[in-house]
Every structure is written in C-alpha cells, then in structure tokens.
Amino acid sequence: MNLFVYNANRGRVIFGRGSLRQLSGEAERLSAKRLLLICAPSQADPAAIIVSELGDRLVGIFPRPAMHTPIEVTEEALRLLRSSGADGIVAVGGGSAIGLAKALALRTDLPQIVIPTTYAGSEVTPVIGETKDGAKSTQTTLKVLPEVVIYDPNLSATLPKAISVTSGFNAMAHAVEALYARERNPIISLLAVEGCRALFEALPAIATNPGDIEARDSALYGAWLCGVCLGSVGMALHHKLCHTLGGTFGLAHAPTHTVILPHALAYNRPAARPQLDMLVPLLGENPARRLFDLAASLDAPQSLRELGMPEAGIGPAAIIAANNPYWNPRQLDEASLHDLLDRAWHGLAPTE
Ligand code: NAD
Fold this sequence. Notes:
By secondary structure, the protein is of the alpha/beta class. It has 15 helices and eight strands. The strands form two sheets. A six-stranded parallel β-sheet has the order 1-8-5-4-2-3, with helices on both faces. Nicotinamide-adenine-dinucleotide (NAD) binds next to helix 4, strand 6, helix 5, helix 6 and helix 10.
C-alpha cells in the first residue's frame, strides 16, 4: 500500500425514512432559533412538513433556487435572509436548492441543515459552483460544507423516473473518478465501490417502480457515499468535460453526466486499470459498456445530440477541454477528446 492522505470532512448525517421529523431537534442542537427555508416548487409536500416541524423557528421561505447557483438569485435570497434576521438555513431539494444554501453560508457563515431529495451529492462536499454573467466558477471552502445532512428516502420517492436515473449516474460518476483520482486512498475507494453497488442495483428497481422505497433507501445511501467521494478527492476528465459542456452549451447537469460517464471511464481505463478493476466484480469485464447498456435499458439519454448540443460544438468543446489543463490519469489531447465527444454526441458505445 502506497503512502496516502485521507481527509475526513466534518458533518453530521441523519439517515432513514421519516428522519425529516428530526429537523427541529437538529436546529435545537445548533442553537438556531430563526431559520430560513430554501425549497424548490417541487418540494411543496416536505416544505409543508418542515413548516409545521419548525413552527415559530421558521422566519422565511425562499422558493426559487436555480440550477448552477446564479449570483442574482443568491443576492435576492440574501436580502430575504438579512431582513428576516435568520440565524440558520434549511434547504430541501436537489443540488440547486443546496447550492443556494451553500452560497448563503459562504457569505454569512450561518449553519446549514440540508435535506437532499436527489442523488447529486452536493450536501457532503466543500465545493460550490456559482454563475455570474453566464460563466460558472467553482471554489472549495469548508465555509460551505453543511453542518447537518438529513437523508430521508421518503422525500426522494417523488423524484420522477428519468431524473432518478440520471441523478444516479451523476452520483456514480463521482465514485468512478474517485477510484483513479490523484488523491485516491483505500478508504474513499471502498466508499466508491459500495456507492456504485448501491446505485447500480437500485436504479433498475426505481425505474420499474419509482415508489419502491427499499430501492430508494439504497439509492440515497449510495448517493451519500458517492458524494463523500466527490468531497474528498479531486475529479478529472469526466467532471471537467461535463463542466465544459454544461457551461458552454447549457446542457442539463445530470443527463450530461449520464452520457459522458461511459466514455470517460473507457478513455481512462488503460491508464487506471488496477483502480478501475475494483468495479469488475460489480460491472463485469467492461465496466464502461455495462454502464452504457444500463443507461439504455433505463431509457436514459445516451447522446449529447438529444441533450441539445449542436454538432458544430464538438470541435470547440474539444479545444476548451484540451486547453484547460488539469490532472487526469491518461494524457489528454484535442484529437482524442474530439473523438470521445464525437462518439458521445452520436450516442455510440464507448471504446477503450
Ligand atoms: P436540481 O436540484 O435542479 O433538481 C432537478 C429537478 O428535480 C428540479 O426541477 C427539482 O425541483 C426537482 N426535484 C428535486 N427533488 C425532487 C423530488 N424529490 N421530487 C420531485 N422533483 C424533485 O438538480 P440536481 O441534479 O439535484 O443538482 C444539480 C445542481 O447541483 C447543479 O447546479 C450542479 O452544479 C450542482 N451540484 C453541485 C455539487 C457540488 O459539490 N457543489 C455536486 C453535484 C451537483
């Protein structure tokens, strides 16, 4: 075993069906007496439970989080937070709601209790991406790491099949890249394999019956572990490509991860075979192909074309991705990235 560093992020996790009812106790533990709630319109039902749980502790509701945390939305929420005199933040929803809570914590240092309802994983990372004038920039700071995460699988049971599947792929992408990360270590690799296992097994059951609560338990548990991977080690080609494609063409976050993951995995496998072989017992001899086939069997998008990327964008995207230097296990060049993106655009199977 080589020398390694393991960085454990702080954070308290409450997991289980019905755990939303622990919310006021958790607010009490944090000595938060005036809470601002952030929730998307899709979260009306949990929001109603939260309103009754928090009672007088709730001093405001901000119902308009947006994908990629636009600064204008943060500033609007910040005005409400200041005028309400809030001393804590509660967020319920996907990565967009949690991203807004993190943006507010970045500016105020207030404690956050977050209740994820998708599998994006942002709740356990010290990372925040924000968008200003259409450009997204990302920073890593412990100021944004939520103090408490409440994982209640009952809340994810309303997530539609299509979003459940792509969000699950988004989570598995964190784990796959953690296996070959420069900062990889045996603890995070264990979490990565277990996170992939839980999601790989749960997603077909959820696609068949989105109300399958045992599968929801398993998927949310897997998403947590995959999020820990994202929050602990650096990411590489897959995340950088998705960032480029999302930022340049406005492609939806989780579907882009779903299309790119098999291709990025196949591309990096020759340079990270021992690390990625940890997936072979779960995914077989060709993990990239298995994930590609899984996406197809669950009716998930398989091409960048169907996500709305113009074919003429392949060349510029390859140039941006090649010229923006970052660590990756396999060397990157414009021609290889062009080939990868071309296959992904057409929805062709990945090649190593
Ligand atoms: P999202 O939060 O935008 O949610 C997707 C859609 O699903 C929204 O319309 C939302 O209202 C709806 N939804 C969420 N939960 C639901 C439920 N239980 N039932 C019904 N509908 C529900 O998308 P996301 O994929 O969760 O998050 C994407 C965002 O998170 C992006 O901005 C991305 O950059 C960010 N992100 C950040 C990190 C990080 O570490 N900083 C990690 C992952 C994602």
